[in-house]
Amino acid sequence: GGDDGEGSDQIIDLRDLEVSNPHAPLWVTPTGHVYLESFSPVYKQASDFLVAIAEPVCRPTYVHEYAITENSLCTAASIGLNTDDIISKLRQLSKMALDDRVLHLVRTATAKY
Prior knowledge:
Low-confidence stretches: 1-8
Structural class: alpha+beta
Mean pLDDT: 88
């Protein structure tokens, strides 16, 4: 849907996000959607990481979209990725500070592993 309500359908304007690490390849939105710049020098590393923790949504030429979900995080945890490593890597690769909702999702989804 395209409603203005809360949830994963909510549109995030990337221009509203405060960039603190402009050379990083990821835009991580508060809803858990992640946009990867395919032209980044660290694209391969970031792509491999996202494939392990998120679900691909759309992968056009320049910017790939992924969704971090409870299921994708459970899969990541089941193959040995731990909570702190996931959060640390997201922080390293993200252009901006991670929203508390994303941190909460990662912590709750991986807590049982």
